[in-house]
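In keeping with the milestone schedule agreed at the kick-off meeting, the structural modelling team has produced records for the first pair of proteins. Each record is given below as a sequence line and a structure-token line. The laboratory manager (R.T.) confirmed that both were archived under the project's standard naming scheme.
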Amino acid sequence: MLGKILRIEKGSIHDGDGLRTVVFLKGCPLRCAWCSSPESQDSDESQDSDESQDSESKGSTMSLEEVISEIKKDEIFYFHSGGGVTVSGGEPLKQPDFTLAIVRQCKKTGINTAIETCAYGDYSAIEKLLPHLDIIYADLKLIDDEQHKKYTGVSNESILANIMRMASDFSTGNFFGKLRIRIPLVPTVNMEDDQIKAAADFCNSLAEIDFVEFLPYHRLGIDTYRKLGREFLMDGIMPPSRELVEHAKNIFREAAPGIKIV
């Protein structure tokens, strides 16, 4: 089995519990205006042949055995830190069979598993992953469907439905891992009080989640857009201040006091 890999990062502390190896897959169905990894979006071979892209942007084709071999090199660090492997992207559901093969193989050897997903797609792909996952990070970008289409290029109908089903599976024991919601905080896009409250109301309606994590927008991907010859659509937007982030968290807490925020 072969997969299209953007890169594999070791020793991450931001993509799950403990020290983690993060497998970044190529391909994503969304085109978020603020995306900091535009090189991860395309998985088409024709895109990869573009000579204007550097080798890191193009990624590489790897076998399942090669990926598992890289993951296992750091097993000792996982077990001492409570870490493991996280499959990210791009979007793991864009390569569902390869993602399933990775996490299933890791679980067989006792390695903690996680995915970071936009939750867009057919729930059957998610359902197959559940028995082999310890953690799911699901993105909640915008509640308003028209705004979601404007800023990501797709409807959020299946995203919201999938998150609700994951939370239900979590609460009923069909999924024994942890569901964590991530909300990007992007000025001019989703940081108005009513937008934060709508996100809180949605999270409040979920059967069960571990916590909500806010991810302030940043501009670290600008250089990548330049290398790819692409326009960065949020070029004039600055990261939110600490005060604005705290304000958003306070609005969320007021609307959903029972939900833990990190």
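The second protein of the pair:
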Amino acid sequence: MTELAELVARAAELAGGGRRLLGITGPPGAGKSRLAMRIVDELAGRVALVGMDGFHLANAELVRTGLADRKGAPETFDRDGFVALLTRLRANTGTVYAPAFDREWEDSRAAAVAVPVAVPLVVVEGNYLLYWPEVRPLLDEVWYLDPDPVLRQRALIARHVAYGKTAERARAWVASSDERNAQLVAAGRELADRRIGWSPELAD
């Protein structure tokens, strides 16, 4: 059985009962979004995907607060809003609407993802699931993606270029902002239930 098949099988087990929350975390460019989407595709109808990136502060607010050049750092998210959403998802008393991040807009869209009561598994993906201490207790299981850092950075640069940055700007952003955030994320990896050397070509 391939590693991906094992991960999908484990996600299917988690989806076999009442509401469960599966966290997928790791540094920027580790492949979180792609792995989450593979699970959603394989378990269609039994799983919903909620991304932490939907809680990015709006670009206008980042400019107002002087944080535009730190986008992606912990302080550039609505942390309390994210925790409140996870709490509602665990309670599972009605349909919950979550925001989503649009990479083409580079901004969030409110109430973009509906999570009905009947969905047994919610996959939650994002950088800071193990960094913010109040988040971990709300997740039933957390996987940490830990690919080779050189290959991860290469894939991350390519992603930034694909979304409009020049190659020079992309390399500078990865070396500064993204890698500072990666160090914060890595500090909590021992708290994960599973560490995965995920493939860098699936960079999220």
